[in-house]
Design brief:
There is one protein chain. By secondary structure, the chain is of the alpha/beta class. The chain has one domain (3-228): 3-Layer(aba) Sandwich (Rossmann fold), CATH 3.40.50. Helix content is 33%, strand content 16%. It contains seven helices and seven strands, in the order E-H-H-E-H-E-H-E-H-E-E-H-H-E. A seven-stranded mixed beta sheet has the order 3-2-1-4-5-7-6, sandwiched between helices. Helix 5 links the parallel strand 4 (108-111) and strand 5 (159-164). Helix 2 (19-27) crosses helix 6 (189-198), helix 3 (52-70) packs antiparallel against helix 6 (189-198) and helix 4 packs across helix 5 (122-137). 46% of the residues are buried.
Length: 248
Amino acid sequence: MLRLMCITAHPDDEAGGFGGSLRLYRNRGVETSVICLTPGQAATHRGSAKNDSELAEMRRKEFAASCEILGVSEGIVLDYPDGQLYRQDLYRVVCELSSQISRFRTHVLITFGSDGGVTGHPDHSMAGVFASLAFQWAGRTNRYPDQLKDGVTPHRTQKLYQQTADFTLPDRQPIALPPPTTVIDIGDCLEVKVAAFKAHTTQSPLWTLFESHVRPRGKKEMFHLAARVTPEPIVQETDLFQGVEEQN
């Protein structure tokens, strides 16, 4: 079975940034995993939460509900501090993500770029940096050798994609988005994507803004092919698994 992993920063990223593709490929029989680095306890919109701990628990449940709507095979929320990913020990975070990649035997990895996506969120930027390093280091014997036991071997994910777009948001810090190399037609999965985003009820003040950006731009999600195990010229793609070998 082909396997697709998505590495994000906050609950709701999986739906807002990647939800259409996650549902589309699950419909096609691809096994999917989402690794979310933080429980989102520093969010501006907090629902009825009285403190950060309550909000984190609420958002973990919302994440689980969203993943169910998207058909995600496994959804994992780690416990790094929301809003503070740039302060975390890089070697430690990449170690944990490398372990997840090797365990899942990922074929294709999707994440943010160092730009932080259209919001330019610093946590999104760091999630992309961590994920990109894990993509490279999970396949090496000289990184995290203590993980290589009980049958676990270095694993080379075949393709790394960064989320991108053909627009920017006004009144935000400047970003330079990577050029799209891959445009995925998510079709009817757009409605599932919106429904999954709305599973994050603490973030309901963002629902209207989210829909106002995604609906007018059609049923597509855009990615930049950042790396692949076979050195080949970049071509315009319509499939994240183009050229991927299933036996991996």
